[in-house]
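worker-03 picked up job from queue 'complexes'. Input manifest follows; two sequence lines, order preserved.
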Amino acid sequence: MPNILVVEDSPTMRQLISFAMRRLPNANVIEATDGVDALKKLSTSKVDIILADINMPVMDGLKLVSLVRGNPEYKEIPIIIITTEGAEEDRKRALQIGANDFLAKPVQTQELLNIVKKYLGMK
Amino acid sequence: MEKESLLMKKAEEFLNMFRKGEEFTKALLKENERLRYRVAQLEEALRQSKNEARIRHYEEKIRMLEDELNSLKAKFKEVEEENKNFAQKYIEVEEENNNLANLYVASYQLHSTLDYSEVLKIVMEIIINLIGAEKFAIMLIDEKTNELVAEATEGINGDMPRVKLGEGVIGRVAKDGESYFAEAMLHTENIDFQNPLVCIPLKIKEHVIGVIVIYSFLIQKKSFSPVDYELFNLLAGHAATAIFSSKLYTQSERKLTTIQSFLDLLKEKPRR
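worker-03 finished. Artifact:
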C-alpha cells in the first residue's frame, strides 16, 4: 500500500491531487499544508513518495526538498515538484536541489498519475 | 590312331559342351542383369509413388495450415483493431474521469464556504491551478455606478481601471453575458487592460454580476483543452452563485452584528 504525501497550501489543488492519487490501487494519501507540516507527517508515517508545491507559506517546497534530502532516513523518498513556475530554469533548479521530477501547473492528472506510477514501480 | 581320333572327338564334344555352358552362363548373367535393372526400376517407381503420395499429403497439410494461418491472422487483426479501440476508449474515459474530477473539486471548493474573501480566494486558486492563468482579475458590477470594479487581481501591478457596462470587450461581455476568447498567444508580458485574452461573464441564470478577465496564461500553457472550456462554464455559473451568496451572507452577517450591538446597547441603557 503506497503512502503518498501531498504537500500543497491551496486546498483546491491539494484536494485535486489527493483525489487523483486515491485512484491508484490501495494508495493512502497523507495531506500537508506546508513544508513544516510535511516534516511532521514524515516523522509519524512511512512515506513512499512526496508531491510538493514550491510556493507555500511557513516553509516552501525547495526548503522541504533540501531538508528531506539531508536526512538519511528520508533521502531516498522520490519527490515530485508541482508548481506554476514552468520555465526551464525552474525545472533545473528543482532537479538540482534533489527533486526527482517536475510538473508544471495546470496539472494534467493523467501525466501526474503516470509520473507517480513510474516512481512507485506500478504498471 | 583310331584311339587318338576318338579322343579328339571326345575333346571336341567336351569343348562344344563347354562353349554351350559358357554361352548359357553368359545368357544367365545377362538375364540376371536385366532382372536386377528391372527390380531397381520397380523399386524406384515404388519409392517415387510413395514420395508423391507423401508430397500430396504434405501439400494438403500445408494448404490447411496456410488457411488456418490466414484465418488466425485475420482474427488477430480483428482483435488488434478491437484492442486499439478499447485502448482509445479507455484513454477517453480516463480523460473524462480526470476532467470530471477537476470539475468536481472546483465545484466542491466553490461551495465549501460562505466567507466572501475565502470564496474569492478559491475562485482565484481555480483560475491559477486548474486553468493556468497568470494575470487576471475578478470584476464585479457596482449597481450604483453601473461600472465593473476589480474585487481581486493576480499578477497585475497597480490599480485595475473601472469599466463602464457595455464599453470595450469587458463591458460588452458584462452586458451581453457572452464569453470572449481572443485569438492570440496565451502568454504575454504586457497587459492591455482593454484587450484581455479571455473574458468570462459571472452569471446567475441570465443576470450578470461580474466578469473574470484573463490577460495572460502561464508560460507553459500553449492552448486551451476541452476541460478549460468546461471550467470556464463552471466558473461562469458556480463562481457567480458562490460569490453572490457569500457577499450577501457577509453583508447580512455584518448587519446582524451591527443590529446585535445596537440591541445590546439598548438593553444596557436602562441599567444606568
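worker-03 released lock.
The radius of gyration of chain B is 53 Å.
The helical segments of chain B are 2-110, 116-131, 168-176, 226-268.
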